[in-house]
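#lab-general

N.A. 3:47 PM
ok so I finally got the sequence cleaned up, no stray characters, all 150 residues accounted for. can someone with queue access submit it? mine expired

B.Y. 3:52 PM
send it over

N.A. 3:53 PM
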Amino acid sequence: MTSDSDLIKLYSQRILGLAADIPHRGRLEGAQASVRRRAPLCGSTVSVDLDVEDGRIVRFGQDVKACALGQASAALLGCNVIGRTRDEIETARDQLKAMLKDGAPPPGAPFEGYEVLEPARDYRNRHASIMLALEATAEAMAEAERAACA
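B.Y. 4:20 PM
back already:
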């Protein structure tokens, strides 16, 4: 049974603050790549639009319809996404997944801040929502690379 103090820790003021102020919110017109991901268990969705130049994200937009934890995760991504490579995005995604599932440390530079989501480790039903923004961004970068090679 979840205690009230566990829920208070899970939905901390910092998480709620991040959720209320998501950088790069909104869709992009004429983006090189667009990906929509959905968490089947909770129904959260994230749509990501981006442009890539020289292997780095130069333009980014996200439409986030998720719980506060998914929104906080999208906000942390949005703070650091411009200028990132596919490898950096995939590394952050893999580190976040390991943090949630295996108790590994949170993603490192340039994606500091994800430690705020460590209390969600015990809430497996929230993991998919937390992962959506990074997963959609990694998928969109791969899509942009395929389009550039075509």
